[in-house]
């Protein structure tokens, strides 16, 4: 049985624990059979390094083609968003030390590449601590990772802001804290989570938005704004950075957070009960979102039972795993979670 699911008998009934063990055992057995059937799967480090190399190289190529004027901005943005979704899956696996576990240089190099190509996210080394806690206490009040992705929040302008721009949300949340001490503490926390990559990433985005809003407003008012050579050169760099790195990651992160925050239950989940932590969301209308987070809604529930399988193997085990999960009572496409603020038991799920 997966170590993350060893739970005190006082928390779970024997029936629930047996069900968790059964799901974990069946999916693990199936993935092991796939490893035996397809020998290539035994080269896990090579596969991870190859996906990373192809993804980073693809981003560089698309960026170069855009800068040279060979492809339009939208094509670069969409392609790089898809590539960063692969890199996110690699980072998730790396956090669980699924690649180069004993080769620290290669492992940390891959972690660094994940951070550079997705600079709007906190350091993967910092995220490791949060993610391990997420597995242990998924859906409870101490699950910071789930809260960051908006799980448990009511739907409205505040949640959409958090999905789209976590940095501004964090600062606004700090400013409205009840005391000055709390304001300072939360502000420092936001800056720490985003330093240094995220500060450059969000700073680039805000300068881009501010500059183009100013020039657009000026033109509407009949002013002919002429930037200085220095400003023009700076904005050329920022415009390119937004197309190549920032905009792709904003799309990817919104899609990932939207899916992740709704497949995880939050607020009334029994501690360490994998049967209540997640659901499977694989309805057809979710595909525009799933596309930019590598089918996360369909496969992440599997990960909460079997941690040792890398992302590509979860995709392969999904058809079988879905049957096992359904037999264990895991929910599928419970869209009532939107109304329940991701609570598990407030009302019955939609059918």
Structure, described:
It holds the Pfam family FA_desaturase. This is Fatty acid desaturase. With 351 residues, the protein is mostly helical. The chain has one domain. Helix content is 66%, strand content 0%. The protein is built from 15 helices and no strands.
Concise account of the structure shown:
By secondary structure, the chain is mainly α. The chain has one domain.
Key traits:
15 helices; mainly alpha; 351 residues; disordered N terminus; single chain
Helical residues, percent:
55-70%
Based on the structure, what is the oligomeric state of the protein chains? Answer: single chain
Give the overall silhouette. globular
Average of the residue pLDDT scores:
92
* Total DSSP E strands: 0
Strand content: under 5%
How many helices? The count is 15
Question: Segments where pLDDT lies below 50 for 5+ residues?
Answer: 1-10
Structural class designation: mainly alpha
Q: Provide the domain count.
A: 1
Rg, rounded, reads: 22 Å
Query: What distance lies between the first and last C-alpha atoms, to the nearest angstrom?
Result: 31 Å
Largest sheet: none
Order of helices and strands: HHHHHHHHHHHHHHH
């Amino acid at each position: 049985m997966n170590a993350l699911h060893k739970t005190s008998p006082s928390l779970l009934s024997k029936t629930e624990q047996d069900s968790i063990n059964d799901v974990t055992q069946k999916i693990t057995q199936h993935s092991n059979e796939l490893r035996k059937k397809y020998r290539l799967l035994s080269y896990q480090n090579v596969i991870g390094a190859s996906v990373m190399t192809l993804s980073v190289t693809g981003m560089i190529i698309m960026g170069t083609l855009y800068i040279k004027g060979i492809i339009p901005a939208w094509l670069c943005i969409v392609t790089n968003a898809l590539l960063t979704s692969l890199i996110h899956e690699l980072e998730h696996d790396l956090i669980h030390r699924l690649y180069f576990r004993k080769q620290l240089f290669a492992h940390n190099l891959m972690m660094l590449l994940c951070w550079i190509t997705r600079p709007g996210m906190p350091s993967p080394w910092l995220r490791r601590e949060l993610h391990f806690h997420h597995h242990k206490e998924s859906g409870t009040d101490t699950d910071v990772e789930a809260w960051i992705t908006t799980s448990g929040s009511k739907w409205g302008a505040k949640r959409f802001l958090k999905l789209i721009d976590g940095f501004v949300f964090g600062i606004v949340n700090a400013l409205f804290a009840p005391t000055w001490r709390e304001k300072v503490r939360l502000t420092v926390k936001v800056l720490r989570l985003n330093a240094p990559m995220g500060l450059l990433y969000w700073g680039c985005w805000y300068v881009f938005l501010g500059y183009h809003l100013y020039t657009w407003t000026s033109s509407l008012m009949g002013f002919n704004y002429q930037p200085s050579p220095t400003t023009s050169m700076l904005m050329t760099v920022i415009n390119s950075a937004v197309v190549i790195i920032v905009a792709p990651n904003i799309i990817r992160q919104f899609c990932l957070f939207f899916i992740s925050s709704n497949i995880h239950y939050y607020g009334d989940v029994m501690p360490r009960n994998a049967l209540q932590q997640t659901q499977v969301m694989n309805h057809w209308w979710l595909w525009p979102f799933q596309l930019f987070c590598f089918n996360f809604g369909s496969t992440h529930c599997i990960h909460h039972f079997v941690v040792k399988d890398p992302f590509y193997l979860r995709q392969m085990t999904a058809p079988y795993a879905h049957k096992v999960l359904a037999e264990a009572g895991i929910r599928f496409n419970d869209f009532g979670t939107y109304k329940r603020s991701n609570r598990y038991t407030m009302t019955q799920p939609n059918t």
